[in-house]
Design goal:
The protein is an alpha/beta fold and 195 residues long. The chain has two domains: 1-36; 38-191, Protein-Tyrosine Phosphatase, Chain A (Alpha-Beta Complex). The protein is built from seven helices and five strands; from the N terminus they run αββαβαβαβααα. The chain has a five-stranded mixed β-sheet, sandwiched between helices. Helix 2 (56-66) packs parallel to helix 3 (82-93). The radius of gyration is 20 Å and the shape is globular. The N and C termini lie far apart (51 Å).
């Protein structure tokens, strides 16, 4: 009887291990796929889009396909970095305004910074492309803010922008990117939202 129970326990453990491995592999493939495709998504059609760091070719394509007039770069001005110089040149070639708003995925932003960010989101010529490096954490927070505070989307729907669906995985005390979730929690209170 004991050996039969032990055999069942081993089988159950094996099934759980296989299922967990398959789930982890699937999530990894999904996240790699997001980066492979540039993590490009529509927030509000004809108005605001989000992505990972766009290449010069992607900037030209986004300009042509979506009419992008402004890029909001959440990585900040990095004149010594090739990606930044390429972005500046591509934006200039395509007649796109580039706005730099430096953020760190591992640091919270306060209400004063959020107000400055919301002014940019409100006033920048549209269509607007928001991006950071991976298009997941900083871009997720800013997309959430845009949808909820400017586009008037309900809080629960807006919060999906800061989720694994777009590559944002934040675990308290284990992930530096959890600062984006903490920022949103603080902003919800500041905005008078139910959290």
């Amino acid at each position: 009887m004991a050996s039969a129970n032990l055999l069942r326990a081993k089988r159950l453990f094996k099934r759980v291990a296989v299922a967990t491995t398959a789930l982890a592999a699937g999530l990894t493939l999904y996240l790699v796929g997001l980066q492979w495709t540039g993590n490009f998504h529509t927030l509000v059609a004809g108005e605001v889009y989000r992505s990972a760091q766009p290449t010069p070719d992607e900037i030209a394509a986004y300009s042509k396909t979506y009419g992008i007039r402004t890029i909001l770069n959440l990585r900040g001005e990095k004149t010594d970095e090739r990606w930044y110089r390429d972005e500046v040149a591509a934006a200039d070639r395509n007649g796109i305004r580039l706005i730099n708003f430096p953020m760190s995925a591992s640091a919270e932003i306060d209400r004063k910074e959020t107000d400055a960010l919301m002014a940019i989101l409100r006033d920048a010529p549209k269509p607007l492309l928001i991006h950071c490096r991976a298009g997941a954490d900083r871009t997720g927070l800013v997309s959430t803010i845009y949808l909820q505070q400017i586009a008037g989307v309900d809080e629960e729907t807006a919060e999906w922008q800061l989720s694994p669906l777009y590559g944002h995985i934040a675990l308290p005390y284990l992930s530096g990117t959890f600062a984006m979730d903490e920022t949103w929690e603080a902003l919800e209170k500041s905005f008078g939202l139910d959290s």
